Amino acid sequence: MNLTLPVYRLCADTKLFSFDDKISDVPILSTPLGSWQQKIVNLAGLELFDIKSINEVKEDQYIIFDENLFFTEKFFFLIINKIKAEDKKNKRFCLKTNDFNKTYIFDHSQDKFEELKFNIYYKNKQSDSVEEVYLDQITFDHYIQIPKQLDRSGQMYHGQCEVFAVTIISPFHLLYTNLALNFNRTIKLQKAIPKWFAKKYIPVGSKFFYKSLKRLNRFGKNCRIHPTAVVEGCVLGDNVQIGANCVVRLSCIGSNSTLEENITLTYSVLGEGCYIANGNIVNLCMCYENVFLIHGPYQFSLFGRSVAVMAVINCDFRLDQKKIRIMSSVGLIDSKQSLLGICYGHESVVGGGNIIAPGRIVPNNIKIPPPNEIIISKFDEFL
């Protein structure tokens, strides 16, 4: 049976908390969120309509979701299958708790019972009750060993899943949505190789593992990559430059970006025109366009449009190892993360010597000079 329901996007002129981007414009692997939603609905053979109020809906049956909801193609297609196969009760779509969801899907409500329940519904005006439908997920779980001084568990989760959704209510929600989606590029390789075979013959960190990652490389036009650079599992736009002795792994790099020498860029998403200075370490980060970074390391962080960060101590964990709380459009929420960096607002410039605590959001258009006590402007006292 073909499904011909209309799909409505409930638009409330939402903006990304603190960054003030129109929510439909925030980047999902360089695609605006609104265009991403449109594409997935169209792939399902359905038509998407924008409305300001549910009172505008005339049909008896329809699908409706909030404009700040990201969802994967597989998530939406599972919804369609559930509607086709089951009764015509109203349905709200949800996920169950697992390690993938605990890592990548931040809370969108201060009500803990709402954290994996999303504002995407099948509505039937002939029905009064609302059924919560839990979608099945297949996760490809992977854990990286880390020092217990960073996390008492001694490990960090780096798994992948094709079925998930995120309600984007802070820049940190946007960051982890992009990280999860970037990791998903490895799933097609994992599906092609039986788990038992991969575990025995292609373990993570082996020679064959890294060779298989290179099969994911996709380079644009006129890229210049130094012969000593290692590039594995990456998507490069046009005119990307990568200098000598760089290690670039499982990352997406926008057109006209430059990586100077001796840079490690891993598991990150860079927009167009970014510039990463010599000797930098950038891990699990997201950059809008035209970002300039010098003297890292930078981890678990998001950099807004035209940001410049210079020799900042970018803290990414609490010494007491407690979970880090973050600000959002619904107030202070628990990120559930013990490792989390900083979100730098658009056009912000942060000078060297500053120390920024984990989970903080630097406002747009702010300039933070180096602390006065570390600046030497005169040498008279030394003469």
Radius of gyration: 22 Å
Kindly state the number of beta strands: 39
Assess the beta-strand content as a share of residues. Answer: 25-35%
| CA-CA gap between termini | 87 Å
CATH architecture of the largest domain: Alpha-Beta Complex
The profile of the biggest β sheet is: 8 strands, parallel
Q: Estimate the mean pLDDT confidence.
A: 93
Q: Strand order of the main beta sheet, please?
A: 16-19-22-25-28-31-36-39
Query: Which parts are unreliable, with pLDDT below 50 for 5 consecutive residues or more?
Result: none
CATH fold-level topology of the largest domain? Spore Coat Polysaccharide Biosynthesis Protein SpsA, Chain A
Measured as a percent range, the helix fraction is 10-25%
Number of structural units classed as domains: 2
Number of helices: 7
Quickly describe the structure.
The protein is built from seven helices and 39 strands.
Description:
This protein is 17% helix and 29% strand. It contains seven helices and 39 strands. The strands form eleven sheets. It has an eight-stranded parallel beta sheet with strand order 16-19-22-25-28-31-36-39, with no helix packed on it. The protein has a six-stranded mixed beta sheet with strand order 4-1-5-8-7-9. The N and C termini lie far apart (87 Å). The mean pLDDT is 93.
